[in-house]
Amino acid sequence: MAPAAIEIANLTKDYPYGFLHLKKKRSLEGLTMQVEDGEVFGFLGPNGAGKSTTIKLLMGLIFPSAGNAKILGKPISDIEMHRDIGYLPEQPYFYDYLTAAELLDYFARFYAFSATDRRERVQRMLKKVGLETAGKIQLRKYSKGMLQRVGLAQAILHDPKVVILDEPMSGLDPLGRREVRDIILELKREGRTVLFSTHILSDAEMLCDRVGVIVGGKLRGVGAPQEIIGVKAHGMEILFEVAAEKAAGLPLAAQATRTGDRYRVHVEEEGLYAALDQLRAAGARILSVTQMKASLEEFFMSLVAADRAQASAVEVSGK
Amino acid sequence: MSRVSVVAWNTFREAVRDRVLYNLVFFALLMIAAAILVGEISLGIEREVIVTLGLSAISLIGLLMAVFIGVGLVSKEMDKRTLYAVLAKPVRRWEFLLGKFGGLLLTLTVNTAAMAVGLFVALLCVTRSLVAGDAAVLVAVYFILLKLALVVALALLFSCYTTPLLAILFTTGLYVAGLFVGAMRNVRSDLMAPALKTFLGWLSYLLPNFSNFDVMSSAAHGRAIPAALALQNTAYAALYCGIVLFVAAAVFSQRNLK
């Protein structure tokens, strides 16, 4: 079995605060996990959960208070490791006096590619992220979505084995998100390892082999997206259409949310067939039946609530 | 191209594109006005006036650039987070720092050289000919550049661990204190307690000695500047910059980015 691409062991980060920096706030606590070679791993969590802190630690932008991590078998303090890693920062911002082509050329120079190779790579990357016609425009004129694409281009410019993306879909329109998803899938097909953070459930479900969920600086679970998020399926949603005169005598219609002649009702899984029979009997037209899963928000909220309950329990026992 | 020179070249490119070199227009206008005015007055001190005014302007404009751009070299990159993508590449923090220093020094060199050309043109317009003593003006310009290198190194050091405003205050404060290093060493012992005099003596060796770089009077009067002083100032600036940059790199290497 190939060694893990990313190995994180007991990674902890405390931020000092207060006038003399004597107090400490723990933003990441004993994170231990692995990202296997060639997999797409989603790092899920609400804002402030510790996703970006973990990624910054991996990239050497901040330093751990305890624990360590390795990427491709090398410690994160080894700068040469960065030859094989691509990184997209959250809400990336680049030198706005440069054009996209100049920026990519600037970054390519750090890898000592030849001038011909640099030119070829820059053009290839601009095309890959859909910016081939905007390559000669200064970045100060770029939209947020275009900057995100440039960020993605610079992250994969040097054909890295491991690509780490911090909120890559953030700020993108649906088309842009689709393109980023396609690029991530292409990276996977090319055998690269991708770790990306997100709080968008659908992205994680669509792309990830595995996800890790982090809340309050602590890892709450690692596994396939369906295992981690899908376990919270609760009930069914029926969308149906029925004439107003028939709806008057229909108990389900009274419970439903109405939009014109259309009704949307939420029933327990066990009561589904009875509800469908009732609708058929009333002459309703059933448009769709969907299994309800907890939204990511609900999922996070339940974890956050548990986290707070635990914190207050510790506080009470401490008192 | 080394990673340091890649960063340095980009820093220079940033200065050019941010129109930093537009200050040359102001300098050119100042020199033209001075040449016309001095020509009108014609008191036999045209050379002194032009050289003193020109060197003062070169020094002041350079200092403003060194302090205000210097403190932003790293802090601006941290604030805007442009640094993240750079440090994700195989670039060591000290290489980035040295590149930023080199880039601003290159900008200041180009700027100072252009202003020196302007000064010589103005001098030629006023005196109608250049003499051997004018070489001292070139040495004075070189000393200004050495001084600016020191100021940039200090600004860079402070910007690595404090806010831009405090970095400006610290750099300016050290510059002003450094102008009085000679006075600190030569203070009369009967005017203060021996302990204080000893302290000032030590402090004078710790502070950057900017007074050594001031040869404006000699240059204005066409007096030759000893080669030994040029060598001494070059070695001093190189050593002091080296130490300051070493400390800056050590501080920056431990710094958690936002």
How far apart are the first and last residues' alpha carbons of chain A, in Å? 49 Å
Radius of gyration of chain A using CA atoms only? 24 Å
The beta-strand count of chain A equals 14
CATH fold-level label of the largest domain in chain A? Rossmann fold
Structural class of chain B: mainly alpha
CATH superfamily of the largest domain in chain A: P-loop containing nucleotide triphosphate hydrolases
CATH class of the largest domain in chain A: Alpha Beta
CATH architecture classification name of the largest domain in chain A: 3-Layer(aba) Sandwich
Helix-residue proportion of chain B: over 70%
The helix count of chain A comes to 11
How much of the sequence of chain B is in beta strands? under 5%
Task: Extract low-pLDDT stretches of chain A.
Answer: none
- Largest interface, with Cβ-Cβ < 8 Å? A-B, 31 and 23 residues
State the low-pLDDT regions of chain B, or none: none
What does this structure look like?
The complex is a heterodimer of chains A (319) and B (258). Chain A contains eleven helices and 14 strands. Chain A is α/β, with parallel strands linked by helices and 319 residues long. Chain A has two domains: 6-231, P-loop containing nucleotide triphosphate hydrolases (Rossmann fold, 3-Layer(aba) Sandwich), CATH 3.40.50.300; 235-291, YebC, transcriptional regulation domain (Alpha-Beta Plaits), CATH 3.30.70. Chain A has a six-stranded mixed β-sheet, sandwiched between helices. A four-stranded antiparallel β-sheet of chain A has the order 2-1-4-5, with helices on one face. In chain A, helix 2 (100-109) crosses helix 3 and helix 3 (115-128) crosses helix 4 (144-156). The relative contact order of chain A is 0.13. The model of chain A has no long low-confidence stretch (mean pLDDT 87). Chain B has one domain. Chain B has 258 residues and is mainly alpha-helical. Chain B is 78% helix and 0% strand. Chain B is globular and about 60 Å long. The longest helix of chain B is centred in the first third of the chain and has 35 residues, at 46-80. The two termini of chain B are 30 Å apart. At the A-B interface, strand 6, helix 2 and helix 4 of A face helix 1 and helix 4 of B.
